[in-house]
Amino acid sequence: MARLNDAAQWIILMGFLVSFAFFFLALVINQSTVVGQTTAESVIEFPKNDIQDVRQVILQTKDYPNTSLVRVRDDITNLSITRKSAVVNFTSVNIDNETHILIHYNNGVTEYNENWSAL
Amino acid sequence: MKNDGGQLYTIEGFAAALIMLMTAYLVVNATSVYTAGDTHITDMQLEALGSDALTMMGTNESRLTMSPLESIIENPGTYPDATFRTMFLSLVNNGTGVSMDANAFNESSTTMKYIHFTANYTCWDMNTNTANPNNPISYSRNLTGGEHTVRATKWVIIEKGAVPFCGTTNQPRAVLVEVLLWRD
After folding, report:
1. Which long-range contacts link A99-106 to residues 24+ away (Cβ below 8 Å)?
2. Where are chain A's structural domains?
């Protein structure tokens, strides 16, 4: 009796193995687009511009007399919470002729604290 | 004589079943995976561009002069403010091959294919103790609601304290300039 010829089966089986390899490579490429999306999302989520901007406007007030400072601080604090849902707080103290400005920023995701000082 | 043909066919059957399962998985999953793609990347770039433009407009050239943004808010021209529009549009649309006419605003989309904006600022109303966001500055096209916009903001200190609509004091005031911008 002639032996069953199974060469075709082996060829097809190897074909399957190769196609699985291709499949997993495609999966990697598929995931790579999602990586770009999550990166962009986390960049958008991080409030770099907000912090830089609020920091800049706070440092602009360093030479203000107390009456002006109270007014501007009120504006910045109130507008931050209503328009940007960020808690912003800053106090300015003068120790040994050195001005210290303590800046606090928190938008629920990112918190930033700074002790800025200058002579 | 023993024959291993049965084993081979069983493995083949398993492989075929796996392929069908994987195909079904891919087909069901494909629509949900491919939707967002890289849309956020362009949002990110547009937001950075708008913030940079506002930062440039909020910077004064010397200690003695006001920044363009401060001067526009302190001395508002007729709405929509032409100075703001020209300056902002030329900053965000600065590129090769863009023929821009900032004065021909609100035209049909066939003549203007670049970044558009609407800008306003929010001040804190001391009389009612609420934020007043209804202080329009300028726009390049009306918002219809279908645009995919991003928001860029900039703090500006108004030195003379004369903010229209929000109670005038002799003290400096801080206002928040908010710009929505979108590609068209």
Report:
1. A99/A62, A101/A58, A101/A59, A101/A62, A103/A54, A103/A55, A103/A58, A105/A47, A105/A50, A105/A51, A105/A54, A105/A55
2. 1-45, 48-118
